[in-house]
Structure of O-antigen ligase:
Amino acid sequence: MMTIENAALARNHYPAGYHRRAAPRWRVRRDVLAKLVLTIAFYASLWRATGMWYGLPANFDDGAAVDPLPMKLLLYGLIPLSGLYFLLEQRQFLRVFSRISPFIVVVGISCLTSIAFSIDRGASLKGLAAVIVLAVPPLLYRARYGNVEAFKVLGRFAIAAAFINVVYTAAFPQFAIMRGSYAGMVKGAFYHKNTLGQFCSVSFVCLLSTEKLGRLRYSTLIRWAAMLCLLVLIVATKSSTAVVLTMFGSMMLYGVRVIHIYPNRLFRSFVVFLLFLIVGFGASFVYLGVASAVAEAFGKDITFSGRTNIWEQLLPLIWDRPLTGYGFAMFRQPEVMEEYVKVTFDARSTHNTYLELALNIGIPGITAWTLFLLTRLFRKMTIVDPDPAESGARRKEIVIIILIMLGAMTEAGMMLAPFILWPHMVIALSELRPRLRTNRNLRQT
């Protein structure tokens, strides 16, 4: 313990006129404020992506707007929040956007080119702006605090959404249960039962844990209850895609864990390469076969409720504009679908994200995007992570990427679209390390 004499000597040690710098209290407050702003923006982007709101029509044929006014305000509110975070942590903001994959550069050029040749430049520009605005908060949060913290936020939001949709369905069945051609299928507070199914399937994987069960806590019981609610909602939607994604996701999460047991990166690369060759070609056929079987169990036809009729009419259109496409987000517009697709039912989407992107941004854009997904997926599967928590989060990132790529075969708007799983996709594809940990490692070396 320092005596009074020693303290006096310590003060006299400094030269005359020297003033010790005050503790950087502003820096602490700024970090706390930055995290608060970024967390609010992250939750807001998740909410806006789901589109959950009270009173959305139960009849899909009513033609109500997908984005009610509160959802538009929520989207616009992300712009000042992202701007405020830029003012608080400019270096971190610029660091995130200074490391962009060449494939993403090609995708960006394809998107801008498609807007220049779009059949409706205004709608294409708004669509691209919405995708960017919705992607910024999750990307910044993942880069600033890491994948473990990002998945904690995804888990909390999934738990809240599961309970909210169950309560909403019980309290307001006139809005939560669909009518018309989808009579009896539950959509909850979402706009459509398929979007609820997609969200629940990926959220179930986010909450699923492959680690050994430790001490039983209240948080674990709440998580289990939320997972049960998600399963109930998946079945209630009668969405064959959601059921298959949940089954595949659960099995893949444990399968990837087996691969990550081996610490040797070269061995992992060899195993992953074999999986890409063996499973990659067969997974699509197995997925479609299982999905058709589940569809039959729900009383649907084996052609995925008329999807093949839509695809047959849209595929030739790709070659009319193979380089530029028809414009970003064009084939997400119902009026465009009505113009180019003639079927006996109301076809409002392509029901295939790859086909949609090929029509919207052209063949170079969809090719670059697919290559980016595959290379990023291969890299994540071969990375050796010593931290068990980060390794578990990385496994979930891998499964989410695979699930979205599989689900995109039978559903539209699952990639490069401001809907449902876009924030999840952004987090899963990111590779940036959290800044705090990087600085700490540098000091230790």
About this structure: The CA atoms of residues 69 and 75 lie 10 Å apart. Residues 437-445 have pLDDT under 50 and may be disordered. The radius of gyration is 24 Å.
